[in-house]
Design goal:
6-stranded mixed beta sheet; 6-stranded parallel beta sheet; 28% strand; Ribosomal Protein L25, Chain P; Alpha/beta knot; 6 helices; single chain; 2 domains; alpha/beta; elongated
């Protein structure tokens, strides 16, 4: 099933407007025509079965035939990733985390991160494409921060703070725990001493992903899969 995305503001029941590149993809690439049916999500848990009513240059007008909704899967996971020097690896991490069901993605510059520019638009585009490809109905929020300290300002009350740490052998049992998770995976150079101090002061629980050092993107994928898809 091809899944398309419309921002919530462009959904006025019983109509949906698809704009710009998404509209061009529908009409020029996939060659949908008036009267054809397709599926659209708003990224907040709703799936719309629609019929194309009108096609313009970069706008497609749809009529909603049917609507279904699903609850957000638990636990709610915020994944924080230290910036990766190679952009394709960072985009790979964002893509796979989205496919596995991460709810919020925060990318930050750690003390040991290579000072490379983060291509924010590419990350957001990757996340959107991964949501549609995996037919998920919740679009992860994407946030960019310049330090670990700034990242922790996004942590909400009740979220369990976890840090992936190769220096511990602690393994967290989440089988009976539905609490939201705030997970931090360090950059390629790991956490600095000052970052470890900050995490300790915030009562972060250290968890092990094995006795070998993993790349940032590998650790991120494993940890999301472990807690999001444990059933």
């Amino acid at each position: 099933m091809n899944l398309f995305y419309a921002i919530p503001n462009d959904i006025q029941l019983p109509n949906i407007t698809i704009r710009d590149q998404e509209a061009v993809h529908i009409t020029k690439v996939l060659r949908f025509q008036t009267g054809d049916k397709l599926h659209v999500t708003d990224g907040v848990g709703n799936l719309y079965h629609c019929e194309i009513r009108n096609i313009q240059k970069s706008v497609v007008d749809l009529f909603i035939v049917d609507k279904k909704s699903e609850e957000r899967p638990t636990p709610f996971i915020t994944l924080c990733i230290g910036n990766i020097k190679k952009r394709d690896r960072l985009e790979f991490a964002a893509e796979k985390a989205t496919e596995l069901g991460v709810d919020r993605l925060i990318i930050f510059r750690g003390d040991h991160s290579q000072k490379e520019n983060i291509r924010k638009e590419r990350i957001e585009s990757t996340v959107l494409s991964a949501m549609k490809q995996s037919v998920r109905l919740y679009l992860p929020e994407v946030v960019f921060e310049d330090s670990l300290k700034s990242v922790l300002q996004h942590k909400k009350e009740g979220e369990l703070l976890l840090m992936a740490d190769e220096t511990t052998d602690s393994i967290l049992n989440m089988d009976q725990n539905e609490n939201p998770l705030f997970i931090i995976v360090g950059p390629e150079g790991g956490f600095s001493k000052s970052e470890r101090k900050i995490l300790n002061e915030n009562n972060a629980q250290r968890i092990s992903l094995g006795n070998k050092r993993l790349r940032t993107e590998t650790a991120a994928i494993i940890i999301v899969d472990r807690f999001k898809n444990r059933q």
